[in-house]
Each structure stands twice: as C-alpha cells, then as structure tokens.
Design goal:
The longest helix is centred in the first third of the chain and has 14 residues. The protein has 149 residues and is mainly alpha-helical. The two termini are 32 Å apart. The chain is built from seven helices and four strands, in the order αααββααααββ. The chain is globular. Strands 1-2 form a two-stranded antiparallel sheet. Strands 3-4 form a two-stranded antiparallel ribbon.
Length: 149
C-alpha cells in the first residue's frame, strides 16, 4: 500500500465535521461511528489522521471506545465514566497543558508519579503519556523525562 500525503491539520477538519454531525443528531448518544476504514475513504486521509481526529473527540467526551464494540457517541460526561484509565490521565494532563497550568518546557510527572497518583500500573501511565506524545503535546528527552512542547 502506498503512503498518502495528508494536508497538515486535516485531522482538525475531520474533528470539526464529526463534532458537527454529533451535535446535529446524525450520531445521537449510543450510536456507533463509522469504522476507521470508512472515515479514511470518506475524507481521503491516512489512518493516523482519522485516529487523531477520533482521539480529539474522545478527549472532548463525545466518544467512548469500548473493547469489542468500537467507538460509540456519548451523552455529555458519559464517555469519561467509560474511558479507560489511560485516557482519564491523558485528558487531565492535556487540560493542564491547554489550560496553561503546564507551560512549554515544563517537565511532566514521571510514570512512577502518575502510577502513584492515579493508582494504575506503570504501563497505563506510559500509555497516557504516549497518547499526549502522539498528539504532539509533549516530547520525550531520553534520560531526562517528558516535557511540554
């Protein structure tokens, strides 16, 4: 399969379109969203672009991903209750970054600190940090830790 060039910021357009569809009732709470393959075909983008858009909607609480069921639209606040622990952690850290509590260059809590604070496994804490890194919000400096971009 050949690689497709995706316009920078295309995920934001997809996020906006899907958010609008959810708000307008095309996908009411409890509705399955189209598959990643269907969304890729509709928008003509790469899988990672679709995933980034869906992750943003999940962070906003408009979607919940449930094992074996896929992505389902949520009533406000419902997705947070269903979200896995790593998403709750990444949402909290994302809010701290976007809300200005954490600034560019600030160090993030270590995996060990997140493990203690949230009562989760180290793997769960690492996955939360990986979510933020894949969203371009943080960077890892080997031997130093993770920092806000």
């Amino acid at each position: 399969m050949e690689s497709r060039a995706t316009p920078w910021g295309a995920y934001k357009t997809i996020t906006d379109v899907l958010r609008h569809r959810i708000a307008e009732g095309e996908f009411p709470p409890g509705t399955h969203l189209p598959s990643e393959a269907e969304l890729r075909a509709e928008f003509g983008v790469a899988r990672n672009t679709v995933r980034r858009a869906l992750a943003d909607l999940e962070h906003e609480g408009l979607l919940a991903t449930t094992p074996g069921r896929g992505r389902i639209t949520s009533a406000p606040g419902e997705a947070r209750a269903l979200a896995p622990a790593f998403l709750r952690i990444s949402v909290a850290l994302r809010k701290a970054i976007e809300g200005g509590e954490l600034h560019k260059g600030d160090a993030l809590p270590s995996e060990a600190m997140l493990t203690e604070q949230y009562g989760v496994s180290r793997w769960t804490a690492r996955r939360a940090l990986t979510e933020l890194e894949s969203a371009g919000l943080i960077e890892t400096r080997h031997g130093k830790g993770r920092f806000v971009r």
